[in-house]
């Protein structure tokens, strides 16, 4: 049974490879096999009908477009996530720098440095520094 399936499968594979080409091997293949004859007849009917051919081409194009758009969607999501991560890191760094500047300003206040000097060093306004006083 397995051997028979392999032979049948090889015949079908050869048929599919040769179908649509002007090939003597195709004629030999379909000569004694009713299933292959039927498949060949349906193939000829289908390919001789322009409307059916265009429908098949359109369907194939739609399938390719669908796969393309699904993949683009995945790629776009990955790009958006990467950009979001990059922006998050940049924002975190900026917040860290600002936090360090405020902590340094508080230390300068605790050491009793002049507010104008602290403003000059930290870049904060005197009003901002006043708000940091304990």
Spell out the key features of this protein.
mainly alpha
Describe this entry's structure for a reader.
- This protein is 87% helix and 0% strand.
- The protein has 134 residues and is mostly helical.
- The mean pLDDT is 85.
Summarize the structure.
This protein has helices spanning 2-18, 24-31, 34-48, 50-110, 115-122, 126-132. It has 134 residues and is mainly α. The protein has a domain at 1-48.
Helices and strands in order, then pairings?
Elements: H1 2-18, H2 24-31, H3 34-48, H4 50-110, H5 115-122, H6 126-132
Helix pairs in contact: 1-2, 4-5
Shape: rod-shaped
Number of strands: 0
Mean pLDDT: 85
Unreliably modeled segments: none
Count of separate DSSP helical elements: 6
Helix content: over 70%
**DSSP strand content:** under 5%
What structural category arises from helix and sheet content?
mainly alpha
Rounded radius of gyration (Å): 38 Å
- Give the biggest sheet: none
Order of helix and strand elements from N to C terminus: HHHHHH
Cα distance spanning the termini: 92 Å
